[in-house]
Design brief:
10 helices, alpha/beta, L-2-Hydroxyisocaproate Dehydrogenase, Chain A, domain 2, Rossmann fold, globular, 2 domains, three-stranded antiparallel beta sheet, six-stranded parallel beta sheet
Length: 308
C-alpha cells in the first residue's frame, strides 16, 4: 500500500507541495481546502499530469476531511499569505484561528499522523499545532530551516560561482528577522565559507537570507514565496517516508536542548520514519548562543499573545 500525504491548503504553497510530492512519486496525495472547487480543480489537473510524468501517484482534491483519513503525514500550509509591508507576526491571530480548526479536524481523521507545519508565523503555528494536537514532539515539526538554509546556499553559490551541490549551510533559530545563519558551519566542498569570501560580502549574504521572504513578497506584490517553501516541505516528507535519517534544520519543541525549554526553535534534526528522531546539539560561540536566545525570545513573545 502506498503512503498517504494530506496537504491542507490548496493555495500556491499547498498546491505546489502536492506537485513536488507527486512528481517524486512519494505518496498518494489529498489536497484539501475550505474553498469549494479549488482543491478539486487543482487536484484533477495534477492527476492528469501523472501519465505525462510517468508517475502513479493518485491525487484527490476535496473539501471533506473524511477523505484525509489515515494519512501518514499531514502538511499544513493553510493560512493567510503575507502582503507587502506585513510581517510574519502580523499574521498571528488570524492564522492561529485557522490552525485551531485545521488541527482538530486533521487529528480526528488521522490520529497517528506526523504533522509538518508550514503556516506563518512558523514557530508559533508549530507550537500551536503541538499543543492543540497533544502529539509527542517527534510528530510535530515546523518547516523553516530547510527553506532558510536553501536561500543561504543559493546566495553563497551565486557569490562564489560554484554548484549548489557543493554548498552546505545551516540556519538556526526562529523563521524571521532573528534567524541565525551559521557561517562557520557553512561550507563549499568542506571548506568553511569564512575562508572563501570577505566578511562584508558574507554579512550581506546573511542579511539577504534573513530578508529572503520579504524580498520575494516585494517583487510579487500580491503574494509570497511558494516554490522553495513547498520544495523544503517535500524534502522533509521524503526524509520521513523513506526513513532517510537525514539531518535537516527544522523547528521542533526544545525541552532543554541549547538551554531552551518549551519553545519551537529551529535546530539541526535527524528525520526518519518516526518523524523527529534526534536533535543534534552543536557547540555555539557566545555570540551565536546570544543570537539563538534572542530568536527564542521573539518566539516566546508570539506564544504569549495566542496563549499556547
Amino acid at each position: 500500500m502506498r503512503k498517504k500525504v494530506t496537504v491542507v491548503g490548496a493555495g500556491n504553497v499547498g498546491a505546489t507541495t502536492a506537485h513536488w510530492l507527486c512528481s517524486k512519486e512519494l505518496a498518494d496525495v489529498v489536497l484539501i481546502d475550505v474553498i469549494e472547487g479549488v482543491p478539486q480543480g487543482k487536484g484533477l489537473d495534477l492527476l492528469e499530469a501523472m501519465p505525462i510524468e510517468k508517475r502513479d501517484s493518485h491525487v484527490l482534491g476535496t473539501n471533506d476531511y473524511a477523505d484525509t483519513a489515515n494519512s501518514d503525514i499531514v502538511v499544513i500550509t493553510a493560512g493567510v499569505a503575507r502582503k507587502p509591508g506585513m510581517s510574519r507576526d502580523d499574521l498571528l491571530n488570524t492564522n492561529f484561528k485557522i490552525m485551531q480548526d485545521v488541527v482538530g479536524k486533521v487529528i480526528a481523521n488521522s490520529p497517528n499522523c506526523i504533522l509538518i507545519v508550514v503556516s506563518n508565523p512558523l514557530d508559533a503555528m508549530a507550537q500551536a499545532a503541538f499543543k492543540l494536537s497533544k502529539f509527542s514532539r517527534n510528530r510535530v515539526i515546523g518547516m523553516a530551516g530547510v527553506l532558510d538554509s536553501a536561500r543561504f546556499r543559493t546566495f553563497i553559490a551565486e557569490e562564489l560561482n560554484v554548484s549548489v551541490e557543493n554548498v552546505t549551510a545551516f540556519v538556526l533559530g526562529g523563521h524571521g528577522d532573528t534567524m541565525v545563519p551559521l557561517a562557520r558551519y557553512s561550507t563549499v566542498a568542506g571548506i568553511p565559507i569564512t575562508e572563501l569570501m570577505p566578511k562584508d560580502r558574507l554579512d550581506a549574504i546573511v542579511q539577504r537570507t534573513r530578508d529572503g521572504g520579504a524580498e520575494i513578497v516585494k517583487y510579487l506584490k500580491t503574494g509570497s514565496a511558494y516554490y522553495a517553501p513547498s520544495a523544503a516541505a517535500t524534502e522533509m516528507v521524503e526524509a520521513i517516508l523513506k526513513d532517510k535519517k537525514k539531518i535537516l534544520p527544522c523547528a521542533v519543541h526544545l525541552e532543554g536542548e541549547y538551554g531552551i525549554h518549551g519553545l519551537f526553535v529551529g535546530v539541526p534534526c535527524k528525520l526518519g520514519t518516526n518523524g523527529l528522531e534526534k536533535i543534534i546539539e552543536i557547540k555555539l560561540t557566545a555570540e551565536e548562543n546570544a543570537a539563538l536566545r534572542k530568536s527564542a525570545d521573539s518566539v516566546a513573545e508570539l506564544i504569549k499573545v495566542i496563549g499556547v
